[in-house]
């Protein structure tokens, strides 16, 4: 039993992400504050936790972090820095039954999808499942818990249909650790991997 507990404590939840700038965080925070006025039942993502998930790795033994970093570096080979634009908003999976509120990510060169595919292929070696669903770059800003006031929320979202939250020049990706706490997840950056 003690051995099992120690083994469990050694596991860390990992994911690969693109971090966003403080300026864009501020604009998205203001957007969240405007939506909160709808009184909908939404769990809002803390501004400092906003990011683009490139690959969710899941729980792995802490000892594998070096291997994970090596895989990310290999996947990033020959990928040059690129620009992203954050413009427009929406909900997943549908407008009638929304579960996620997101800000749209415009990646004109399709670099994020390319990185996602490379990471998926590489992480199979560590036993991480390859996702079959199509990658969709977005910034999750809130998770809808019930349908309370969801129509009012949709009306507020409409006014941000083509809203421009800004742009950033991406020069690195990050290996992140996720700790699930009662007050919500806490993300810690373990490594920054510079683009070629």
UniProtKB/TrEMBL annotation:
Instruction: Write down the Pfam families for this protein, in alphabetical order.
Output: LigT_PEase (PF02834)
| Residue numbers annotated as active site | 51 (proton donor), 138 (proton acceptor)
Domain Phosphoesterase HXTX: start-end pairs = 18-101, 110-187
**Record-linked Gene3D superfamilies:** Cyclic phosphodiesterase
Q: What enzyme category does the UniProt record give?
A: hydrolase
Q: Where is this motif: HXTX 2?
A: 138-141
Note the InterPro entries from the entry.
Answer: Cyclic_Pdiesterase, Phosphoesterase_HXTX, RNA_CPDase
What's the Enzyme Commission number for this chain?
3.1.4.58
Annotated SUPFAM superfamilies? LigT-like (SSF55144)
GO function term, MF aspect, one: ligase activity
Where is the motif HXTX 1 annotated in this sequence? 51-54
* Reactions catalysed, as given in the entry: a 3'-end 2',3'-cyclophospho-ribonucleotide-RNA + H2O = a 3'-end 2'-phospho-ribonucleotide-RNA + H(+)
> Which PANTHER family does this UniProt record tie to the protein?
RNA 2',3'-CYCLIC PHOSPHODIESTERASE
Q: Which family does it belong to?
A: Belongs to the 2H phosphoesterase superfamily. ThpR family.
What this chain does, per the entry, is described as:
Hydrolyzes RNA 2',3'-cyclic phosphodiester to an RNA 2'-phosphomonoester.
Q: What is this protein called?
A: RNA 2',3'-cyclic phosphodiesterase
């Amino acid at each position: 039993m003690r051995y099992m507990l120690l083994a469990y404590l050694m596991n860390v939840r990992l994911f690969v992400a693109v971090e966003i700038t403080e300026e864009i965080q501020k604009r998205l925070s203001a957007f969240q504050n405007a939506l909160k006025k709808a009184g909908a039942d939404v769990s809002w993502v803390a501004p400092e936790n906003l990011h683009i998930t490139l690959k969710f790795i899941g729980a792995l033994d802490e000892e594998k972090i070096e291997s994970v970093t090596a895989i990310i570096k290999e996947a990033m080979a020959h990928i040059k820095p690129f620009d992203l634009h954050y413009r427009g908003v929406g909900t997943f999976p549908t407008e009638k039954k929304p579960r996620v509120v997101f800000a749209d990510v415009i990646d004109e060169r399709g670099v994020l999808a390319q990185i996602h595919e490379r990471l998926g292929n590489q992480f199979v070696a560590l036993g991480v499942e390859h996702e079959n669903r199509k990658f969709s770059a977005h910034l999750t800003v809130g998770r809808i818990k019930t349908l309370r006031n969801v129509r009012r929320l949709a009306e507020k979202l409409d006014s941000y249909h083509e809203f421009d939250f800004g742009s950033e020049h991406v020069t690195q990706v990050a290996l992140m650790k996720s700790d699930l706490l009662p007050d919500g997840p806490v993300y810690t950056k373990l490594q920054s991997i510079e683009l070629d």
